[in-house]
Structures are given as structure tokens and as C-alpha cells.
Amino acid sequence: MALTQDDLDRYRRDGFVVQEDLFTADEVDLLCDALTEDARTPGPQVVTESDGRTLRAVYASHLRHPVFHRLARTERLLGPARQIAGDELYVHQMKVNVKQSFAGERWAWHQDYIVWRDADGMPAPSQVNVALLLDDCTEFNGPVIFLRGSHTLGTLERDRVTAGDGTGHIDPDRYALSPRELSDVVERHEMVAPKAGRGSVLFFSPQMVHGSNTNVSPHPRRLLILTYNPVPQAPRPAGEPRPEYLVGRARNALEIDRGLLKHA
Amino acid sequence: MALTQDDLDRYRRDGFVVQEDLFTADEVDLLCDALTEDARTPGPQVVTESDGRTLRAVYASHLRHPVFHRLARTERLLGPARQIAGDELYVHQMKVNVKQSFAGERWAWHQDYIVWRDADGMPAPSQVNVALLLDDCTEFNGPVIFLRGSHTLGTLERDRVTAGDGTGHIDPDRYALSPRELSDVVERHEMVAPKAGRGSVLFFSPQMVHGSNTNVSPHPRRLLILTYNPVPQAPRPAGEPRPEYLVGRARNALEIDRGLLKHA
């Protein structure tokens, strides 16, 4: 389950690495059922598409649901993330981007770290993103597209954006790369959209330029993203911190839970 | 250059067949230059995206520009189309769908024939669509997606739509399959998006269910589509016919032009 040296080298070079079939079909079913349960909890952590009805994302399920609490501590995710970070970790943010069939809208081309830096006072791009596929990922249901190696460009600066709608959410469109910037980056960093089966996991850098297209297929593309942050690198916000479902406040080092996701 | 029996069998079975590299890079450059010239002719045959500025499509360039006039008669396109149709042909419609980088919007899932039947009195689905790639087609720049073999389903009936905006254009969204219909069709007819280099050609049935996603790449996806119709199957509109740039009126059998696209 641990990443090999080759995996780690690939992560450093490309900014991401894929681990196929880390979770069984039964485990993914369990996670999907837990998501359905947790999405019923009303609150600003549940985000809809622009139609105001279709579920787009659910945040911080690990703070409410025992299955996701355990998932965040499973060796299969926390182990490799620790190898990459070289440090003890806590959960900075957890979300599921649902991208429903025929309805899930695209995500603009962006980097993650700059948002957390500006909005939350995150001191360094030391996070590890862990994306667990809850559905088979094809070229038709809006896979995440990486610009391979773009994490080596560092932070691509832009006008500072602050959250102004009261929920703390920041629309990635507001941090989107311009067409000209993206054209330049793509000249040197090719687009690549890893396809893999449900239960597979992508580990990727918070400096990676990434985006995704609309889901034009009849199949949903639910993607669970856990962002771990090193314990010594906790954010130091200039003012009031954003809500806990966006910026984790439990910053003690996570211990690996060797139990099953589903407790007896 | 002629289709083989295997190609013809594939067209009957799948509803499409791909012929790679039918045109040279120089010829595609010539076509792109001619398109740029022709797109400057103002009129309703030039269609913009919903932003009102970005070029989305240009119709009937073969009626205005000598390069496209010759293209419609080149053996490489007209020859295979005649093999498929088994009849003499004329141009029912010609368009270039531009799908600009970062801007080209998706096309809803639809069939072509039903639109021509309802709007133009087209008597039978005997057309042959010929799509010439003016740009390399990748998974990122909004390739045409076919539902393989869906042409065998015949016409999927829906509420009749008439053009009401004065230009004669009909938004394919108004003929789009519902999510439920599409889910059913995809169960039996897989999505497939042929990737090929510029200068390649897709021949496809007017009964094929097809669509495409947004272009999220920095590369345009210009697609030239010639629709040939058998001479004996000319439309018989109930009322006033739509404008000539949408419904060809020169219905004599095309003769093959064996000259170069670019005359000396």
C-alpha cells in the first residue's frame, strides 16, 4: 500500500500519482451510501449547481459521519500522504464534488494553494490532495484534468480575492487562470486526465494547475477529495477564520485507524 | 481513397467510419485561410456563441468561396459519400462549427434527420454527413461524441419544433434527447469520440445520436460538415422553405472535380 520510490519520484516530477483499486467495490458502495446520508444534513456545507437544486458538493463529512471519520485515518490514504509530506498530518479540508450526470458543471483551471493562502493564511504549499474516485472515471463524465508538471511553476499570482457571500465559499472561477496564461502553461505542461475505476485514488499537489469539463454522460462523477496539511504548517489567518467545514480546526496529528471502514 | 467493403460494413453497423489524413497540412491551411476570409461576410449565415461575439459557426461557404465550392466536389469526399448513399448527390447543407479555445460551448445530444424532416420536409434519412477535421481532435477540445450504432434506432420522435427567430436556425437544444432517453440509449450504444489529426474525415449517419462537450483547451476545434443528399430525395417543404444557406437549392447531381483545391 505504501508508495514506492518510483511513485514518489513520479509525484515530484508530474505533481500527481495514481494508485488504482485501493478500495473495494463494497467499500465504495459504503462511502456512497454514507454520502447520501450526510448530504441530507442541511447547511452551507451542502453546495448546489447554478440551478439551485442539483447537488454539486458536500464539505467536511468527516466531521459528521463515522465512515468518513475513519476514511480520513485509513492507512491507504494517510500513509502515502505522510510519505509525500514527510510530516505528521491533519485534515485541512474534505469535500465530495458530485458532478451529476448531464448536470455537473465544469471547474475552471486553477491552483488550490493560492486560495488557501489568501483566504486562510496558509503559510506554505505543503498540503497533499487525495482524490478518491467514487465512480468510474471516463473521458465523458468530466474527469479531473491535470497540467502535468505545472506544480513546479510555483504560485501563479493573480488579483487577491476574498470570500464575500457569507458562507466562506470561494468560487474557483475567481481564481481561474486567464486563457493567455493557460495557453502558455499548456505549451510546456500537457493536459492529462487520468482514467481509472471507482476505488482508485489520485494523489496530487496543491500547486497543480487543474480543471475539469462538464459531465455530458448519464453517469455521475463523484470525487472525494481529502486535503491533508502538515501539523507544523497550520494557517494563520489575518482576521476571522473561515468556517470549520472549509478550514479544519482539529490540528493534532492524525493516527492511523487500522479498523474496517464499516465497524461491526 | 474509395471506401473498402470493410469500411462500408462498419458504417452500416456503427453509423460512422473514420478516414485518417485524407487532406494534407497545406490543404487544411488553405481551408482555414478560406474560412477566415468567408467568415468576414456579414449575414445570418455567421453564428456567434451566447456571448454574441465569439464565432460559433459559418454556413454555406461553398456558395460563396471557390475553395469550398471545389471541396464539396472533391473525389475524396464525394466519392465515399456516393458509395454510402448509392446515388447521385447534391449539397443539402455545409457548415463549419468553430468551437473556439476556452469558449466553444457544447452541442446537445441530438439526431440530425428529425430536424430536417420537421423543418424542411426532408422525405427520408438518406443524407451522408462528412465531417472534415480542420484541427487535431483530442479528448480536451470538444470532440464529436457518437453513440455507436444508435442510427439503427431510427428517428427518436419528440415534440415538433419550428424555427421562430426569423433566421431559420434551429437550436439543437430544442431537439435534444432527454436525460432519461439518453440513459436508455447509452445502455446499448456506447459513447465513442473518435480522435484524429487535422485533415482526417468522419463519415456519419444523419440518424446517429451525437453531441459534444465544451472546449476546455487552448486549441480550437474547427469541424467542417458537408451534408450530401440524394438527388431524388429533395425536401418538399409544407410552406416557405428555410433560407438557402441552411437548405441547399442547387439540386443537380454534383460532378467530381479532379482539380486541386487551390487553383493556379
Automatic annotation (TrEMBL), chains A, B:
Keywords: Dioxygenase, Oxidoreductase
Domain of life of the organism encoding this protein: Bacteria
InterPro entries for this protein: Phytyl_CoA_dOase-like
An annotated Gene Ontology molecular function: 2-oxoglutarate-dependent dioxygenase activity
Entry protein name: Phytanoyl-CoA dioxygenase family protein
Organism of origin: Streptomyces telluris
